[in-house]
């Protein structure tokens, strides 16, 4: 069973947008680093993917999907961070009601930092393929 945690490098020019220029990649990397540092042993495989070419049409995400879609039943959830590194308030979620209830329960663990909201839908160029095929998604 696989939990996919991901982000991408955003800007492909030298313009503004520093809060969203790769922030999701670093957030995703740090999430797995914290799990390791805390000595936690996940029951599922945690897979970090740092996407490429999101702004050029999601080429990296499509390639990954094409290479791994035959094992889609092994993916329990796909997550993408793509809103910058601002103060979080919760997660967007796409999936069935039972999965949403599980996510809501997990989010209660974040009450001490006031990050408990579960919004209507996840949105992410890099995880859309998976969600269209029924894999729950968070962003």
UniProtKB/TrEMBL annotation:
<keyword id="KW-0333">Golgi apparatus</keyword>
<dbReference type="GO" id="GO:0005794">
    <property type="term" value="C:Golgi apparatus"/>
</dbReference>
<protein>
    <recommendedName>
        <fullName>Carboxypeptidase Q</fullName>
    </recommendedName>
</protein>
<keyword id="KW-0378">Hydrolase</keyword>
<keyword id="KW-0458">Lysosome</keyword>
<keyword id="KW-0256">Endoplasmic reticulum</keyword>
<keyword id="KW-0645">Protease</keyword>
<dbReference type="GO" id="GO:0005615">
    <property type="term" value="C:extracellular space"/>
</dbReference>
<keyword id="KW-0121">Carboxypeptidase</keyword>
<dbReference type="InterPro" id="IPR039866">
    <property type="entry name" value="CPQ"/>
</dbReference>
<dbReference type="GO" id="GO:0005764">
    <property type="term" value="C:lysosome"/>
</dbReference>
<dbReference type="GO" id="GO:0070573">
    <property type="term" value="F:metallodipeptidase activity"/>
</dbReference>
<dbReference type="GO" id="GO:0006508">
    <property type="term" value="P:proteolysis"/>
</dbReference>
<keyword id="KW-0479">Metal-binding</keyword>
<keyword id="KW-0964">Secreted</keyword>
<comment type="subunit">
    <text>Homodimer. The monomeric form is inactive while the homodimer is active.</text>
</comment>
<keyword id="KW-0865">Zymogen</keyword>
<keyword id="KW-0732">Signal</keyword>
<feature type="domain" description="Peptidase M28">
    <location>
        <begin position="2"/>
        <end position="137"/>
    </location>
</feature>
<dbReference type="GO" id="GO:0046872">
    <property type="term" value="F:metal ion binding"/>
</dbReference>
<keyword id="KW-0862">Zinc</keyword>
<comment type="similarity">
    <text>Belongs to the peptidase M28 family.</text>
</comment>
<keyword id="KW-0325">Glycoprotein</keyword>
<dbReference type="GO" id="GO:0004180">
    <property type="term" value="F:carboxypeptidase activity"/>
</dbReference>
<dbReference type="Pfam" id="PF04389">
    <property type="entry name" value="Peptidase_M28"/>
</dbReference>
<dbReference type="InterPro" id="IPR007484">
    <property type="entry name" value="Peptidase_M28"/>
</dbReference>
<dbReference type="GO" id="GO:0043171">
    <property type="term" value="P:peptide catabolic process"/>
</dbReference>
<keyword id="KW-0482">Metalloprotease</keyword>
<dbReference type="GO" id="GO:0006590">
    <property type="term" value="P:thyroid hormone generation"/>
</dbReference>
<dbReference type="GO" id="GO:0005783">
    <property type="term" value="C:endoplasmic reticulum"/>
</dbReference>
């Amino acid at each position: 069973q696989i939990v996919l945690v991901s982000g991408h490098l955003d800007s492909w020019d030298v313009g503004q947008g520093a809060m969203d220029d790769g922030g999701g990649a670093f957030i995703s990397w740090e999430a797995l680093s914290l799990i390791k540092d805390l000595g936690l042993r996940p029951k599922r495989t945690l897979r970090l993917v740092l996407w490429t070419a999101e702004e050029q049409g999601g080429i990296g995400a499509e390639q990954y999907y094409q290479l791994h879609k035959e094992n889609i039943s092994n993916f329990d959830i796909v997550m993408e961070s793509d809103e910058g590194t601002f103060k979080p308030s919760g997660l967007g979620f796409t999936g069935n009601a039972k999965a949403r209830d599980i996510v809501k329960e997990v989010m209660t663990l974040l009450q001490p930092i006031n990050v408990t909201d579960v919004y209507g839908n996840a949105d992410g160029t890099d995880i859309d393929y998976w969600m269209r095929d029924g894999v729950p998604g968070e962003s």
